[in-house]
Amino acid sequence: MDFYRNSRETVEVTEKIAEAKSPNRTAMEILDLICSLPEAYRETLVLRFVEGMTGPEIASRTGLTPASVRVNLHRGVKLLRERMGVVSEPPAVAGG
Quick one: which of 55, 92, 95, 53 has its CA closest to 71? Predict the structure, then answer.
């Protein structure tokens, strides 16, 4: 199971990609969307994406466990994507 957890494909987010996917969104609009999220998600997302803190730094600052920070970031980003109208496709099933 660890192999599959650690072998996720990652994509570097650049300004060009951000503009291509959401040309009508400004940083202020996205920040407003983040501010509309529940407190737990809002705080961790702001600390991560605005302040640039790492997961362990966020955990230390908020008193949460590193696992709780990861969960809050994951759920917060998922909710943010939903509110932005960004749809992620499910991964393809191999060998089917």
Answer: 55
According to DSSP, residue 47 is labeled I
pLDDT of 46-70, one tens digit each? 999 889 999 999 999 999 999 999 9
Let me know: does 71 contact 59? Beta carbons within 8 Å.
no
How many C-beta atoms surround the C-beta of residue 73 within 10 A?
Answer: 18
Q: What is the CATH number of domain 26-87?
A: 1.10.10.10
- Cα 96 to Cα 92: distance, rounded to the nearest angstrom: 9
CA quadruple 91, 78, 75, 79: dihedral sign:
negative
pLDDT tens figures, 22-41: 546 677 888 888 888 999 89
